[in-house]
Amino acid sequence: MLMLTGSAHKYKCEVCGQxxxxxxxxxxxxxPKCSAAGSRLIDQGELKPSxxxxxxxxxxxxxxxxxxxAEIARGGVPFRCEDCRIEGVIKAESPIAKAVREKNKGEVxxxxxxxxxxxxxxxxxxx
Length: 127
Hints:
The protein is of the alpha+beta class. The chain has 2 domains: 10-51; 55-113, no CATH class. Helices cover 19% and strands 24% of the residues. A 4-stranded mixed β-sheet has the order 1-6-5-7. A hairpin with a 5-residue loop joins strand 2 (9-13) and strand 3 (19-21). It is globular, with a radius of gyration of 17 Å.
């Protein structure tokens, strides 16, 4: 029932100042010279257009964006998790999408999840 997308965020180690593009899988600073085990990474937000590498989407990603936009046009609802930062679209036939659209009088409104209800990092992740 979900379609996943993504975005690039910057994370800065609060100990050594190393900036990471995207969150390291361990959730800790990936700098081998950083002495702080379990160091906290601070989300610096999405990359600004001037920080992104020049280029265009590959054919696979372009097709995925088209599919997601078409699903939203059909009544799907975009979502994002505040904790793991995953993004995607809840498919139009889902009861959740129908309820969100009904509540918002048909307008496209996104849904925010967190670790208590996220389809990726929550207690019942979707494989």
